[in-house]
Design goal:
homodimer; about 120 residues; mainly alpha; Multidrug-efflux Transporter Regulator, Chain: A, Domain 2; two-stranded antiparallel sheet; about 45% helix; DNA-binding
Chain lengths: ~120, ~120
DNA sequence: CTTATCTTGACAACACCATTGTCATGGTTT
DNA sequence: AAACCATGACAATGGTGTTGTCAAGATAAG
């Protein structure tokens, strides 16, 4: 217990540099910078301007990858969905997964496929 | 029993053939057929298989036009947004509009009641 | 110091998508 | 008969997503 009081395990703590983050989400570092330019993810920076991604950032990117690759949504659509979620203050995206897994075996929750232990990109383990 | 609410003014009543509907939303009839193929709109059909669009269909198409043209969302994104809205059973898309109007005390969603002849949820045209 | 990795910015290739448009053949409406 | 609709096919245009590279400079770690 008391894991919630350990900042070194905080999901918001920035830890991964861009090359590691890119590996975690099976994307090119170039792609991650584009996501940032598009305002879809905002990794922290070291005092010397180096990007550091947190676990939350990774999960957010995995959502982007799922929406774009599995559902064919473009970045503008992802931005709209994120904006909607923030505006409603709810995890509305989870509703998409309930449908995907229950409706039919169309979209299994497995966006990553390069040995990533994380099979669930939904924010909220 | 019949016509208790003047069905001739029901927003769900199919009235417009495709050429008229296309004019109303400033799109090509070809585009409207694509929307239907993509499952984004489902106009009624006459017994002889002619498409007839209702006011609700028109408004739905205007949402598609707004999302695609003004926000750059692709059809897959529109489908996801519609799916999310249907799954949550709320008019979540209206939350996107508050951003454009910047009005906090916007008119509350009033489902089921189409008392106003024109709610005009469509983008400024 | 040397090496590897990071930064921004630009350029580009590849495949895919949205929209409009046309053509053809045939059914429907007026 | 004329005008419209249905389906299906084909294509052109412009845009997007992703990856990739090259450059020049800053930073981290050996």
């Amino acid at each position: 217990m008391s894991a919630a009081r350990r900042p070194d395990r905080d999901a918001t703590r920035p830890v991964y540099v861009i090359s590691v983050a890119a590996t975690l989400v099976s994307a090119h570092p170039r792609t991650l910078r584009i996501y940032e330019d598009e305002g879809l993810v905002c990794p922290a920076r070291t005092p010397t301007n180096i990007r550091l991604y947190s676990e939350e950032d990774i999960r957010r990117i995995l959502w982007i990858r799922h929406l774009t690759r599995d559902r064919g949504v473009n970045l503008a659509g992802v931005r709209t969905l994120f904006e909607l979620e923030e505006r409603l203050g709810k995890r509305i995206l989870e509703a998409l997964y309930d449908e995907g897994t229950r409706g039919r075996g169309e979209a299994p929750p497995e966006p990553g496929s390069t040995g990533t232990p994380d099979g669930d990109p939904s924010p909220g383990r």
